[in-house]
Amino acid sequence: MGGITVEIEFPQDMLIGLRVEPKGLKRKAKEWMALELFREGEVSAGRAAVFLGITKSQFIDLLNEREIPYLDSTADELALDVETAQIQTSAR
């Protein structure tokens, strides 16, 4: 799969403030992008993991480290999903 390269000028003082080594900035920027796209619902966890070159499980661990929820459903929404699944299963 082909891709495009995006070049971004990054201010040196910002780099120092983030405590990121210049050689690690590319990786960090990809990580930030993947996390934000996932948070916004633009990509799945699996797609974000592929983009970062890690497993889905490792991506979910990364979400946990950054305190980003993997599931954004409330407890009530999850309970309703379970109830709906049970009704559909028993109707078969």
The helix/strand series, from N terminus to C terminus, equals: HHHHH
DSSP E strands, number: 0
Low-confidence stretches are: none
Mean pLDDT: 87
Q: Biggest β-sheet: count, sense, barrel?
A: none
Produce a short descriptive summary.
This protein is mostly helical and 92 residues long.
Task: Set down the secondary structure blueprint.
Elements: H1 12-18, H2 25-39, H3 45-52, H4 56-65, H5 75-90
Notes on the structure:
With 92 residues, this protein is mostly helical. It has one domain. 61% of the residues lie in helices and 0% in strands. The chain has five helices and no strands. It has helices spanning 12-18, 25-39, 45-52, 56-65, 75-90. The termini are far apart.
Question: Tags for this entry?
Answer:
92 residues, 0% strand
